[in-house]
Design brief:
Largest sheet: 6 strands, antiparallel
Order of helices and strands: HHEHEEHEHEEHHHHHH
Shape: globular
Strand content: 5-15%
Strand order of the largest sheet: 1-4-6-5-2-3
Structural class: alpha+beta
Protein name: Relaxase/mobilization nuclease domain-containing protein
Radius of gyration: 25 Å
Pfam family, one: Relaxase
Number of strands: 6
InterPro entries: Endonuclease_MobA/VirD2
Amino acid sequence: MGSLADDTIADLLEGPVKSKGGRSGNRARARRVVNYAPEVMVKITGNAKGADHVQSHLDYISRNGKLELEDEHGDMIKGKDEVRSLAKDWSQDQGKRRKNTRDTTNIIMSMPAGTEPRDVKNAVRAFAKRQFGQNHQYVMALHTDTDSPHVHLTVKCLGYDGRRLNVKKGDPQKWREAFAAELERRGVEAEATPRATRGVIKRGVSQVVRHIREKGQTPQVDQAKVREILEDFRDQRAGKPQRPRPWEDRIKERQTYVRKAWLTAAKDLNQSRDPEDQELAESIAAFVGSMPPMKTERHELQKMVVERLQRSAQTRQGREKGRAQDHQDER
């Protein structure tokens, strides 16, 4: 019983981990996902271009030499002078380059609050050695100044073979899977489920952008989107048809499929006589019920713009009432 559920769950749980343990492995992983097992985070934060930029980034992740950097050999780089010496060595060996050549790829790897920082660092060390150690130099630094322990991994793009690191579209998800596997080897529960599989549409927002928004200001990255939203409002008032957004339609189609697939698996599992299957079916149904609404970042910005327009209108109305009252008092 449950073959349909197994196939559906296997399709939903993309990535190499999904095949581990076969049918029982898929169900075990589905159970972890719907019960909100800690999800690893792997994010490429950018690239350093040029000696000054490399120096600035290494200063940042080492907190100006106050934190140790660990290289691909396990050697420790301590203090401002050693960090700057490393940056100088990397910048002198740049190979053939163009003006905008990327000299480093900068990655953050983290786990939610409550994870032992030492386990995170050990897992990143093992991941980096497997992924980059054969051809690339790199350094890593553990940061524990936030609730989520995280490691900054900086990889020198120019490899020993003269080729440069080329990060492909699907690599970050593969790296998440590999990072989660290293944590599991150390007894740390970790998942690397694709965002879409968890019903998440919106991408993460950087802290800088979030802080600017919280101040009621509009970050530069939002300005073009806000202009587009205001144009939509003007089109609506003029009775013009809404402009097509095929990418949003595809997102909704994907999320509709994900929700239906989870519920199909739950329905199949619920027909099983195995109490564990029935319990998993209930957990899946609750998981789907708690998925975030199918709204993109544009929808969130649209709501923010509407709220600002309403506040502006209320302020204007208040001023007009105040002026009218003053005029009445004068009479």
